[in-house]
Automatic annotation (TrEMBL), chain A:
Pfam families: GCS. It is an enzyme of class 6 (ligase). SUPFAM superfamilies: Glutamine synthetase/guanido kinase. This is Glutamate--cysteine ligase.
Automatic annotation (TrEMBL), chain B:
Residues 80-234 form the NADP-dependent oxidoreductase domain. Residues 43-62, 141-162 are annotated as: Disordered. Pfam families: Aldo_ket_red. This is GCS light chain. Pathway: Sulfur metabolism; glutathione biosynthesis; glutathione from L-cysteine and L-glutamate: step 1/2. It comes from the Eukaryota. Keywords: Glutathione biosynthesis, Oxidoreductase. Gene3D superfamilies: NADP-dependent oxidoreductase domain. It comes from Aspergillus cavernicola. Heterodimer of a catalytic heavy chain and a regulatory light chain.
Length: 656, 314
């Protein structure tokens, strides 16, 4: 198998998309099914040397997991020693970009039966146990977003490989850091070659008392002469005051918490895509857990832009650094970025909410529309299609199969926006249209991960039940995404949000379509409702709000708050006491993260480093601190901050 | 004269039903706000623009049928639910109100259920939960003293005695036998009351609703007993005396926030005259089963008004 980059593919992609669209656009009444994806770093602890290293044993671990899953299918192996998970299918494990990563999903998707919601947390714990059972005794899966010392000069991986290989050409990480499946090094190499230089991540350093001023990243080697790209640092790739990184692994090696929902039909999927979009940055700030890169405390709290920069394949022309000559467009965002389109055919969607500068491939848009796709959705896909497919396997190019979606999926899955609208896979008739919510950071404990996953699920139910309207101009969401990066953004920053999430009341007493004419004189008066008032300026519909106001409601009652909305929803459905009590714990975590009673992961890590006896107030997170931090995170994943154990400030808010 | 107050579908009414301050206290805010919002919406939708609201217009947004005044007028010809009946779980909660004779409950239950069926355009409901006045669940003390244990302002005579619970239940069993209701449930029963009660039933309650405040401290004996008897313990946050007379008079009266239908006091001449006596309140919800979406939720409340209405006991 060989992998190449190609720009000949969009025609095929469009044909596959259209074939699939016509096949599946009429799908109806699919149930709510949803799934969460939890990603792990695999660490190997060396207690003698007091070092935490990344384990690169992904392939062995996955092989051993797959063997046991096969045995389970035959019925000759049981996963859980106790009976807790009887009747549940064993979790699925998947490879990820980083060879030190694992991804786990539930064996079967969740439904909306409230008793299902109770199983999420224990299932997440089970995944961790199963994963751990397939690792060496000194290895374990942890849910930090990033490994604090990835890319430092020391031997941070096990086994150790020296940096600077042909695929990544990074001076900090070896090619062996990436999953060896051809897709991944090819992806990295194609991004680099398309871009014409290495990717560039400059993250502002957190300036502590003893941090050198000006800060010049001391780990950068300006004298390396192995690859042409080694010139990057000599050509100004490194910014003063920043931690510099140069490879896809620094971004795609981050762990996220992603939730995918199956919608009832296309209109519901499009509505959820739009309505969840403004929540992306809010949940990003609320789950902030990424304050350390390459051994330094940084001045940002989240992973998002680092990933964006780590896979940014735009050329200098596309970036606007050179005049357009060979390329077709200036492109304002990386292919990993906040989304830029609204796709619902919702009368509440005003044209002012759309991005006037949206870049679309007009040829593709035209073709999609000629073949019967509505303009809005055609615009969305034609916007995704401005990107080149960065990995294509050559045999796929030989024959185009309209009963598959591989070309389309190839392009869609390398367009990493914070929302994703997923058509049903053509070969699986029992799967419907899906929407993925992708902005959240992974949390250190399964309690938190379950809380955020379930919160988002409940928010979608409240959106559909109350017909909520969170529309704001989509550029404001892009700005919010930037805002979410600031240190302690969850408490210190304000975010654009819609002031009134309710739609005007459904007009009463519309004449029934069946044409019942038996109405009284009084009744006929209802048939001429007053004309709807002209819409107020878009700018008056939203304002800057704190995350606490958005989540808990504003103190003057003008904005109801997502938690009160969810609680009102829960008060309208039949929930058993045990489930409601668990849900109360989850909602309480989110309520208190938003109002500052509980710390975010980012804040907890910062405090852990600051209080560590080996920390010298110089922003450096040493091997010793890293080891203790990883130990603490391991302990936390079991004790979850109970009785004053480590992490209580983040999880409980009290020691007792 | 009878008054039938209604909220229409409060899920899509622009949010008056959302309780903005998160609270675990039992509340009738949802009902009161939704009624008020629905009255206002009805008044506005029938008025030509720029007409000041006055009492004289009440006729245009209410409707009289025989001796019943619908506030606002309900258009039962509108489509009920978007999808076919089998897609929904329809739960109805009926609040029997304090001071109303038990003998009326049979008729009240029929009236309430029939209104809901008519509103939703269905022929049966999945679950009917009944709330008896004065029965309060107390998580700290599940010792179940009967008669006179009511903690509410000494209103002993408002609390149902055990015989009347059983008597009421028999009428529900009959309705269930007629196929209008699939399952029956109670609210706020502790383990002992439940055990004593079940001994007198043909159709066991399949649900016991506990208020939210206590959902994390439900006594073990109740959990065990419910599990053994296959009774689901569900949560709610309604209060028992969900629509007191004073509140109703304020909602319907001539005041600034009133609907301008009732007189300001029984003898006053600024509206419909007479004493008012709330008979029952019913809440209904239709949830799309496999998607967890609440498509329709609302309330009806029935009041007797007039000079011959027996004044409330208190």
């Amino acid at each position: 198998m060989s992998a190449i980059a190609s720009s000949r593919v969009p025609a095929n992609v469009g044909q596959q998309l259209l074939a699939n669209w016509h096949r599946a656009k009429g799908k109806e009444r699919d149930a709510l099914l949803w799934g969460d994806e939890v990603e792990y770093l695999v660490v190997a602890m060396d207690d003698a040397a007091k070092k935490a290293r990344l384990s690169l044993a992904q392939a062995d671990i996955l092989k051993s997991l797959a063997r046991d899953e096969a045995l389970w299918q035959e019925g000759t192996c049981t996963y859980s020693e106790n009976k807790e998970h009887d009747g549940e299918e064993p979790p699925h494990f998947h490879p990820e970009f980083g060879r030190f990563m694992l991804e786990a999903t539930p064996g079967r998707p969740w439904g909306i039966d409230f008793k299902d919601l109770l199983k999420v947390e224990s299932n997440m714990r089970w995944r961790r146990e199963v994963a751990k059972a397939h690792m060496a005794p000194n290895e374990s899966p942890i849910t930090l977003t990033t490994f604090p010392r990835l890319g430092t000069k020391d031997d941070y991986s096990q086994p150790y490989y020296p940096p600077s290989g042909p695929a990544l050409r990074s001076q900090f990480v070896p090619d062996e850091i990436a999953n060896p499946h051809i897709r991944f090094p090819t992806l990295a190499a194609n991004i680099r070659s398309r871009r014409g230089r290495k990717v560039e991540l400059n993250v502002p350093v957190f300036k502590d008392k003893n941090t050198p001023e000006p800060f010049k990243d001391p780990t950068v080697d300006y004298d390396l002469q192995i690859w042409p790209e080694d010139d990057d640092v000599r050509n100004g790739a490194v910014k003063d005051g920043h931690v510099y990184m140069d490879a896809m692994a620094f971004g795609m090696g981050s762990c996220c918490l992603q939730i995918t929902f199956q919608a009832k039909n296309v209109p519901e999927g499009r509505k959820l895509y739009d309505q969840l979009s403004p929540l992306g940055p809010i949940l990003l700030a609320l789950t902030a857990a990424t304050p350390v890169y390459k051994g330094f405390l940084v001045d940002t709290d989240v992973r998002w832009n680092q990933i964006g920069n780590a896979v940014d394949d735009r050329t200098k022309e596309e970036l606007g650094e050179l005049p357009l000559k060979n390329d077709r467009w200036r492109i304002p965002k990386s292919r990993y970025a906040s989304n830029s389109t609204y796709i619902s055919q919702d009368p509440r969607l005003r044209k002012e909410y759309l991005d006037p500068g949206l870049i679309v491939d007009e040829d593709i848009k035209k073709r999609l529309m000629e073949d019967g796709m509505d303009e809005q959705l055609a615009t969305h896909f034609a916007h995704l299609f401005i990107r080149d497919p960065i990995v294509v396997f050559s045999e796929d190019l030989e024959e185009l199969d309209l009963n598959k979606a591989d070309h389309f999926e190839n392009l869609q899955s390398t367009n990493w926006q914070h929302m994703r609208f997923k058509p049903p896979p053509p070969e699986k008739h029992d799967i419907g249209w899906r929407v993925e919510f992708r902005s959240m950071e992974i949390q250190m404990t399964d309690f938190e991960n379950a809380a955020f996953a379930i919160f988002i699920v409940l928010v979608t139910r409240a959106i559909l039940s109350f017909d909520l309207n969170f529309y704001i101009p989509i550029q404001r969401t892009t700005e919010n995404m930037e805002t979410a990066h600031a240190r302690n953004a969850v408490l210190d920053q304000k975010f654009y949000f819609r002031k009134n999430p309710f739609s005007p009341p459904v007009r009463r007493h519309q004449p029934s379509s069946s044409g019942s004419n038996a109405s009284s004189a009084a009744h006929s008066a209802y048939n001429t409702p007053p004309p709807s008032p002209p819409l107020a300026p878009v700018e008056s519909e939203y304002e800057l709000m704190t995350i606490s106001d958005i989540i808990n409601g504003s103190s003057d009652g003008s904005f109801p708050g997502l938690i009160p909305l969810v609680e009102s929803y829960l008060n309208s459905v039949n929930v058993d006491v045990e489930t409601r009590c668990s849900l109360a714990r989850y909602l309480d975590l989110i309520r208190k993260r938003a109002n500052g009673t509980l710390w975010t992961g980012a804040k907890w890590i910062r405090e852990f480093v600051a209080k560590h006896p080996a920390y010298k107030q110089d922003s450096a997170v040493s091997e010793e601190i890293c080891y203790d931090l990883v130990r603490a995170v391991e302990e936390m994943s079991v004790k979850e901050g109970a009785n004053g154990s480590v992490g209580w400030e983040m999880l409980r808010g009290r020691k007792a | 004269m009878k008054l039938i107050l209604s909220t229409s579908n409060i899920m899509t009414a622009g949010g008056p039903s959302v309780i903005r301050q998160p609270t675990t206290f039992k509340s009738n805010v949802e009902l009161i706000n939704s009624l008020r919002a629905n009255f206002q919406a009805a008044q506005q939708s029938t008025l030509p623009p720029n007409t000041p609201t006055s009492n004289d217009t009440s006729a245009s947004w209410t409707r009289t049928e025989e001796d019943t005044l619908y506030i606002p007028a309900v258009d039962f010809s509108q489509r009920g639910l978007a999808e076919e009946r089998s897609q929904y779980d329809i739960t109805v909660k009926l609040f029997y109100l304090p001071g109303i004779p038990v003998s009326r409950r049979c008729a009240h239950t029929r009236q309430a259920i029939d209104l809901v069926l008519k509103e939703l355009h269905v022929t049966s409901i999945d679950l009917l939960i009944v709330s008896f006045p004065g029965i309060l669940f107390d998580a700290e003390d599940d010792s179940e003293e009967e008669e006179g244990s009511s903690v509410d302002d000494g209103s002993e005579e408002q609390s149902d005695d055990f015989d009347s619970l059983v008597q009421t239940w028999q009428t529900l069993e009959n309705l269930q036998a007629q196929g209008k209701i699939s399952q029956l449930g109670v609210a706020e029963f502790g383990a002992e009351r439940l055990a004593r009660f079940i001994a007198h039933t043909k159709v066991k309650p399949s649900v016991d609703q506990i208020n939210l405040k206590d959902c994390c401290v439900v006594p073990k004996n109740l959990i065990m007993y419910a599990k053994q008897e296959k009774i689901d313990l569900l949560t709610h946050n309604d209060c028992n005396d969900i629509l007191p007379v004073g509140t109703t008079r304020e909602l319907l009266g001539p005041g600034e926030r009133g609907a301008g239908i009732l007189a300001s006091s029984p003898g006053a001449e600024d509206g419909v005259q007479g004493d008012i006596e709330m008979q029952w309140v019913v809440k209904y919800t239709a949830v799309v089963k496999d998607r967890g979406v609440v498509e329709n939720k609302g309330y009806f409340a029935l009041a007797d008004v007039g000079s011959c209405v027996k004044p409330p006991i208190y």
